[in-house]
Every structure is written in structure tokens, then in C-alpha cells.
Amino acid sequence: VSDEIKFNYDIADIAECESYLLEEMKFYLVVYHPYQVLIDINQQIKLAKPSLQAAWSIINDSFRTDLILVYPPHVIALASLFLSRVVDQGDLSELEAQQWFADLNVDVTDILQAVNDLIALYGIWKSYVESKMPNLVSGFISELAAVFQLEMDAYEESGFPEIKAIFLAQFHTDLGPIVRLSYPEDAVEVGEQKSFAEISSNKSDEYQHHQYQRPSDSVANREIRGFSSYNGEEAPVEVIQLIKRPVAAAIKPESNRIDFNSIQTLVIPKLTLFERLITVHTGKYKVMCYPVAVEGNYVRNALIFNMCFAFGIDADTKCYEPVVKRVGCLLKELEIGGRLLSDPEGQRPLKTMMRQLVTKLNAHGEYQIELDLKGLSQSMVSTGISIRLFPHHDNPSEINLYDVPVRKMDFEAARTKSSSSEFQSKVANEAVWDMVLDKVIHCIDNVNHVRRIARLAQIQEDWVILALKHLDYFGCINLVDIFQFGNIYESQHQMMGLYRSARLQRECFSYVTRDGKAGDIAMDALIQMYLTMRNRQTVAQWIVEQKLDLDRFDVRRFIMFGVMHRLLRRIHCYPVICGPPSLHSEEESDSSTAGANGIKTFETKAKTEVEAVRVVAETGTSTEESRSQSQRPAQVAPIPSVPKTLDSQFLHMLDGTHHMDEISVLLDKDIATLKDIFSDYGGIEYVYH
Fold first, then answer.
1. Helices 108-126 & 49-62, crossing angle to 10 degrees?
2. Distance between CA atoms of 296 and 339, rounded to whole angstroms?
3. Cα–Cα distance measured from residue 78 to residue 34, given in angstroms and rounded to the nearest whole number
4. String of DSSP letters for 654-668
5. What b/e sequence results for 221-257 when a residue is b if at least 16 CB atoms lie within 10 Å of its CB, and e otherwise?
6. Most exposed residue of 199, 249, 507, 622, measured as fewest CB within 10 angstroms of its CB?
7. Within its chain, how far is the Cα of 176 from the centroid?
8. How far is CA 275 from CA 329, 453, 533, in A?
């Protein structure tokens, strides 16, 4: 590189990257090159010297790419041989060369991909200008940073909480519970160490014990013998929540260290809680552990220990439950087979394991390392640990016919390239062969409700609900209500999450604006709009009040984003029968065009009938008998007043438990028509909740 071109990197930066590369390769530096494969191929097909030289040169050029890190040596050798045919045809004819490549037991797709990468390299060399290199490198680094940010966002969405610290607690025969090791080393505050007798007699260290027991058996009724498992069977995952009551803290309140003295009697608990997952809330931390006891030739006939994982107080630690349990069981097996915990020489591999658990699980969500147990056990020289975090999926929520599924991923793109989640990729692959799932996915447009999707796809509603539950379980869709401009929403306290999360703000902005460009809408303005949704205004009234420009602002997506992230809550309208129905005449019901004159005529006739009844009651003679025969009008039959009726399908939904969206979808009537029907019937009130 000429002196005029300056890079922002020096030899120290390159050396640092080399260290990262060596660590990723686990310091295994035996690398197989494609040259030997090319020599073996030449011995079989006897390449011409120009062809062999061209292929050899192409292999040299391949080391300027990442092919050697992506494909095995034989693929690169075959790719170089394929390209060398362009330079020199050699002794093989075109048909013979095609047949030779077809007979290979190699994936042709990999060979062609390697060929394309090499062709791209030569294309770059053809247009290479040395003065443009710094800008190209800067742009490449910016792209890498963007990809890294996307991966970090996907990692945050996966729900894996960060491990703040990890420490090994052990029961000491003289001092009681102690912290033997911790990572970071200053993560746990032990304070003044007391004797076991003093700790046992301390009654101020109380806690609330919330236990989720098996339905058929309780802890109190189980027979516990020593440290053996219950009933000799593997117990299901059972988490015991232990919430500390406020006590006199041994460390300062503003300290970020874990107060071990306040939880030591819970980390090393009584025998009834051994080999069970325990979660202890203390200060700013949530400590999850799995206490274990190993019987044997020890001072008190058992070694009691507990590997504890500390998280933030608000962390969702469900995905770590199998990890904590597995680590506890693994340490138990290593103690039985190799005396890992009781032997002082085991402190070195324990420190390595604890450090790797924190760094690897926080960075990658998986952990694989080999522990060197030389000198600890003759039968176990080394052992491997493989741990991986998997997202915890709750059971899918109940899906109703009036719910609207909203896509959280592009299913078409997920079929051709890797998705942000392997579970979402799994769903995309299943849609290829599952006809029901494929039809349902094609009908999801973020507007259609479940019943309409079933009709468009011509599939039974129960099957559609099962397919949507499958998508909901793997986080591929969200469920929202039917959007209408007459809906009412109000903002929620989760708005603070939108203030704090830059990622959520970017997602909101790109989702709500029509073109994803800033224009005249600022992020602060979007947040303020969410806060103005109150006072029981409909969406239409809110739009008029805010004077929104609908050409660059999608109101439906704005509302949908707020509902999906719980920034907004829908206020539903529940019709309830609160009184008798209104009365009407049969004649009035038969004439749909009767107006105010008809109503007055009906009232006049009713008054005449009432007056006639009063005269007969007082005189015993009707008014008609006192009139002359010529003046007597023709008698008119009385028009009875009857209540309006509703179908039974309406009546059973007017008990206050069914909102208007549900009634509208189930009865196939729009909300305006329903309100007209309820208004004509009378005696129906609306409850908003």
C-alpha cells in the first residue's frame, strides 16, 4: 500500500484479530490445503500442464478469500479445476469432462458456490483501484457493524437474560454455608463469618416459602431417607420461589454485590429442598440454584454444595432452569467419579468452568469446553460439557374467531434464507409440506380475522385455529383485535419501555411511517401521540383532534404496533339487557315507511280506546249507543301493543360477557347494523371495559 493511503489500523490490531482467530480455532493449527487433492486428481485424469498450472494458480488466489474457512479442501480443488477448463480445455473433451464431474460423490451446489465466489474475486480485481480501498474497507466494516447489531437485536428478542455472576456455595463443617468460588471474584459479599450454631439459632432470617407441589403428593407427606431421590424416580422440574423479607443488610444498600449472609440458609437449605430448583430474590438480584448432597466418606457423611447463578431482579429465567439443574447434576457426577469438589486440585478446573459459563452463555447462548481432570481421577482424565440455551415458549394463548393474526416474520423470505430464529425457520419449512399451514399463511394479511381466514382458505375453523396456535407458539404471529375507526384505546404504563429501548423506537418508526423515512414525524412525536390516546375517544375522533396527515402516517399500523407491544389497551363495548323491550303495534311493525304522522295516528287511536273504556265503566252505556245510527262510524278493531323480539342467538350474547367484535363476527353482522337492531329493541345498555 502506498504511503498516501492511511488506514486506521496498525499491526497491534492485526495481532489482536489473530488472537481471536486462534481462540475460535481452539488453537488447532493443523490445516489441510487443496493442493494435495489437486495432485491426487491429476494422477487419475492426467491433466495437461497448462490446466494443472491454471488450477494451481486459482487455489493460490482462493487464499485471498474465506473459502478455506467455509468449504473443505476437496471442494476448493474441484472448483479451481472447474475454472481451469475455461483457461485450457486439456485432454478431456467437453462430454468427458461433464461426465467426470457428474460421477463425483460431491455436492455440486458447494462447488458452484465456490466457483461464484472465485469469479466475484476476479471481478473485484478487474475494477480494483488502490486509492478507493480505505472507503471500501470502511463500508465493509459498517456493514459488519449493522449485521452485528441485527444479531444483537435478535439475541435480545430471544429472551436470554444476562448472567450477572456465578458462585459455588458449600457447607463447611465448622463455619456452615460459605462461598468457595465466585466469578467475578468480587461479585459476592460474605461479610462477617459466623459459626454454624449461630446461623442455625438466628430466627430473624425469615422468608416466605411458595412451593409448587405435585397434584398427587406433597412434600410434607413424602418419606425422605438421607439424600436419596424421592420414590427412586426422576422428579419433574419444580421451582421453589424464596422471597426474602427486609432484614438488616450486611452491606450498603447502594452496593452491587450479592449479600450472601442474607440468603445462606436458603442456598444451603434443609433436606426437603435438595435436588430441586430454587429461586431466591435478594436485593437487585435473582439467584437460581440447585442444591446437591453427595453421600460418602466425608466428615458429616455427605458433601453439600450448590452452584448458584445470579441474574437481574426482573430477568425471566425460565430458559436457565434446565441449565442450572444440569450443572448441578454434572458436578455431582464429577464429585462421585473424580472428587472434583472435595479435592483441592479441583479448584483450577472449577474456576475455568465458571468463567466459561458466564462468558460463553452471555455471548453466544451456548457453552462447550473440556475439563482437564488429570490427577483427580484415573477413570476420568477429561470430560466434555455441552450446554445450550433454548428460548422458553409458553403455551399458546386462546385464539378466538374474532382475533386478527399479525405476521412477525416474512415467511416467503424465511424459506429461501435463514430467519432470525431457528424455530421460525422450522415453521417456514413446515409450511412447504403442510397444506393447511401453507393456505393459512397466505391468507394472513394483518387485516383478516380468524373466521374470514377459514372462509378464504376453505378450511375448517378448528383446523385454522390449530395452525395459528402453532405459529403463535413459535413467535411467528401476534394476535390483535379487529381495527375499526370506532374503536377506543388508552395508553398503558408499558410506554416507559418505548422511552428506554432504542431498538423498540427504531422498530416503531419503521413500522408506523408509510415509507420508513423520517419526513416531518419525529420519534418524540410518535411517543406523544400514544400518550394522547385517552378520555375514551374513538380513533376517528382522535385523528380529527390530532390533525394527522394520513398520507405519511399509517394509523392502523400505529394502533397495531401499540397493541402488540402492550403500549395500548383496547376498550371493548359490551351490550347488556337492562330493561324490558319497547312496545310497538303490529300495524307499525308491518309498515317500514311510517313516519311521525303514523305515530300520531296510533297515539290518537289509543286515546280513543282508553276514553271508551272509561265511559262504559262510569255509565254502563257505550258512546256508540248514544249516537244516531247514521252518525255511528265503522268500528275499528283495537291494535294491540306487542314487544319487539330478538332471536335466541342475540339474547344469549347480551349478558355482559360478549363484546361487540365477538357478536359481530359470530353473527356475521357489522357493528352499525347490530347497534340499529339493539336500538329498535330497546332496554339495552353498553358497558365499556
1. 80
2. 11
3. 9
4. -BSSS-HHHHHHHHT
5. eeeeeebeebeeeeeeeebbbbebeeeeeebeeeeeb
6. 622
7. 42
8. 8, 48, 50
* Positive or negative torsion for Cα 441, 443, 444, 449: negative
- Per the CB < 8 A criterion, the answer to whether 385 and 323 are in contact is no
Cα gap 238→456, rounded to integer Å: 44
Of 273, 275, 272, residue with least CA distance to 294:
275
C-alpha 364/C-alpha 162 separation (Å) is 11
C-alpha cell at 461: 375453523
Looking at per-residue pLDDT, the higher value among 323 and 69 belongs to 323
Among all chains, which residue has been given the C-alpha cell 432452569? 321
Cell of 56: 494451481
Distance (Å, rounded) from C-alpha 137 to C-alpha 118?
Answer: 19
- DSSP string computed for 492-514: -TTHHHHHH-HHHHHHHHHHHBS
Asked whether 279 and 239 are in contact (CB, 8 A), the reply is yes
Cell 449461630 belongs to: 198
Q: CA 168 to CA 1: how far, in whole Å? A: 53
Angle at the Cα of 250 from the Cα atoms of 180 and 200, rounded to 5 degrees: 65
Q: Which helix (H) or strand (E) holds 588?
A: helix 586-590
Contact assessment for residue 334 and residue 380, using Cβ atoms and an 8 Å cutoff: yes
Decide if 94 contacts 124 (C-beta within 8 A): no
Q: What is the DSSP string of 410-447?
A: -HHHHHHS--SSHHHHHHHHHHHH-HHHHHHHHH--SS
Q: Give the HSE-up count for residue 280: Cα atoms under 13 Å, Cβ half-sphere.
A: 28
Residue 5, pLDDT above cutoff 60: no
> Looking at residue 31, what DSSP letter applies?
-
Amino acid 631 reads: Q
Cα–Cα distance between 471 and 406 in angstroms, integer? 10
What CA–CA distance (Å, rounded) separates 55 from 39?
10
For 535-552, write each residue's pLDDT tens digit: 788 999 998 888 887 777
Dihedrals φ, ψ of 419, to 5°?
Answer: -90, 175
Q: Is 74 in contact with 38 (CB distance < 8 Å)?
A: no
Note the pTM of the prediction, 2 decimals. 0.52
CA–CA gap between residue 267 and residue 171 (Å, rounded): 10
